[in-house]
Amino acid sequence: xxxxxxxxxxxxxxxxxxxxxxxxxxxxxxxxxxxxxxxxxxxxxxxxxxxxxxxxxxxxxxxxxxxxxxxxxxxxxxxxxxxxxxxxxxxxxxxxxxxxxxxxxxxxxxxxxxxxxxxxxxxxx
Length: 125
Known about the structure:
Number of helices: 3
Domain Carbohydrate kinase PfkB: 22-111
Keywords: Kinase, Transferase
Strand order of the largest sheet: 1-2-3-4
CATH class: Alpha Beta
Number of domains: 1
Strand content: 15-25%
GO molecular function, one term: kinase activity
Largest sheet: 4 strands, mixed
Protein name: Carbohydrate kinase PfkB domain-containing protein
């Protein structure tokens, strides 16, 4: 992973990720070249750290219901990837929308139970 972080705009790490050298995971990702690093932790706020050491807390909206959390992290990462494809989207904006989509997904059974069932938040025009 360290070999490709210099090519990463946003390293989105799970709470379970541990830096190989035992250091702070966000600091480790940034020290290996990521432009920004974030860490998700379920319903807790996402911690976002920029290369200039600014740290932000991105709130995770409370879900309307919790039926199945299986796959919520994958939904978060997938929604963040969609956001990364938007030219000019800021990391904060990307993570806010990704957190909304992931929170929405847990109200439905199964990993893809929410697809076609829920009104997925859209990017501002």
